[in-house]
Amino acid sequence: MEKSDKKSIVLKSIIWKIMERTGVQGVQFILQLILARLLTPSEYGIISLITVFIVLGNVFIQSGFNTALIQKKDVNEEDFSSVFYLSLFVAMLLYIILFFSAPLISEFYKMNEITMILRVLAIVLLFGAFNSIQNAIISRTMKFRMLFFSSVISMITSGIVGIILAYLGFGVWALVAQQIVNQISITIILWITLKWRPKLVFSFSRVRYLFSYGWKLLLSSLIDTLYMNLRSLIVGKIYTSEMLAFYNRGEQFPQIIVSNINGSIQSVMLPTLSAEQENKRRVKEMVRRSIVTSSYILFPIMVGLAVVAEPLVRIILTEKWIECVPFLQVFCLSYALWPIHTANLQAINALGRSDIFLRLEIVKKIIGVIILAISMFYGVYAIALGGLFSGIISTFINSYPNLKLLNYSYKEQIKDIIPSLLLSIVMGGIVYSILYLNMSPYITLFIQIFIGCIVYIGLSKIFKLECYEYLLKIIKSLVKKKL
């Protein structure tokens, strides 16, 4: 395949992946806004805490082997079927563990509702076993268009169910039903459209081969997921369920945006980088492009979101959620660093150096836990700030191996993102000054968003930012092809 053809496939895949994530998260965001008005912060706090255990369980099902199937150059039906049956067995085992440990978790957090809710919600783990193989096949074949339609339809369907139940007064069970229906829907739709079926074969040798690569990623993902959710577990234990809801709600806004844009790019980049793993120079070019492009798009959004946080929350979540504003602002700064994190880690993954990946995760998490242990004595806001500080340190750690692997130093990476960062800070200062006009939240928010876009794009054009010209060129070429 020619280079131009590969580039076209990658661009189309990124566009479909961004559409899939944006569509799903956009629908989910609207649904969450509606549910936030119907439910209380306390009810959200309970489901946020329970979801942590489900997320940890999903790591064993959807990490390690899933990534190994994507990264491995040659796979066959025996590989997919063997991993499928193994994932299903692990899912059943995890469900049994969560079922019998639910009362202990409920007693530890002094919340009687947890037992039954956890036992019901953990059913999604079984569907996750199906979904993990489906996602691996989609990633390998880059059929992200298929994932877009299945994900959006599933989210709309489950959202309608959740809203109806919340309106009828089912409280936290509306959120439980929404998550279960979503997982069932997406699995069924992909089962019909993907046409993949597991064969009645299981190969221990194939599993061992994939495990030799995947176990390091599995352990890395487990460490990372546990670490990322450790703060929620601590906040849920030390403080109230309402405070946990404010903490998690503050994280939700930047997380949705970053996972849409940066996550879409990186999910396409892994199979693309893996295909070019023998050409280090080409891998470096793609990693650099990923960092520069993601930063150019995400920096102004994160800075802008932090600045408009207060009027935004008052308008879309109402006054009962105003306590989430400080968390939202801190998380915006934390998630702005993700392009550097993920691009560097994806490069290491694609080069097959899961050993380095694992070592990085261990070092980062040791440092992060130390910072968390110190910050938890100074209050819940200090916990959030500690996460930001850990993230800054992690950018140095993640980029260090690529100095040798790709000759792409941290100094080069900083140089690549500085233009976007400076423009975002200038834009943020101008947008923040609008708050002093003391207008209504609606007018303030509208003017802030409008002025922010004009300033950032205008400065990009004036200073002729390379990434601005690059994206403009891509947009023009795509429009021309459509015409």
Automatic annotation (TrEMBL):
<keyword id="KW-0812">Transmembrane</keyword>
<protein>
    <submittedName>
        <fullName>Lipopolysaccharide biosynthesis protein</fullName>
    </submittedName>
</protein>
<comment type="similarity">
    <text>Belongs to the polysaccharide synthase family.</text>
</comment>
<feature type="transmembrane region" description="Helical">
    <location>
        <begin position="442"/>
        <end position="463"/>
    </location>
</feature>
<feature type="transmembrane region" description="Helical">
    <location>
        <begin position="176"/>
        <end position="194"/>
    </location>
</feature>
<dbReference type="Pfam" id="PF13440">
    <property type="entry name" value="Polysacc_synt_3"/>
</dbReference>
<keyword id="KW-0472">Membrane</keyword>
<feature type="transmembrane region" description="Helical">
    <location>
        <begin position="46"/>
        <end position="70"/>
    </location>
</feature>
<keyword id="KW-1133">Transmembrane helix</keyword>
<dbReference type="GO" id="GO:0005886">
    <property type="term" value="C:plasma membrane"/>
</dbReference>
<feature type="transmembrane region" description="Helical">
    <location>
        <begin position="290"/>
        <end position="313"/>
    </location>
</feature>
<feature type="transmembrane region" description="Helical">
    <location>
        <begin position="366"/>
        <end position="397"/>
    </location>
</feature>
<feature type="transmembrane region" description="Helical">
    <location>
        <begin position="82"/>
        <end position="102"/>
    </location>
</feature>
<feature type="transmembrane region" description="Helical">
    <location>
        <begin position="146"/>
        <end position="170"/>
    </location>
</feature>
<dbReference type="InterPro" id="IPR050833">
    <property type="entry name" value="Poly_Biosynth_Transport"/>
</dbReference>
<feature type="transmembrane region" description="Helical">
    <location>
        <begin position="114"/>
        <end position="134"/>
    </location>
</feature>
<feature type="transmembrane region" description="Helical">
    <location>
        <begin position="417"/>
        <end position="435"/>
    </location>
</feature>
<keyword id="KW-1003">Cell membrane</keyword>
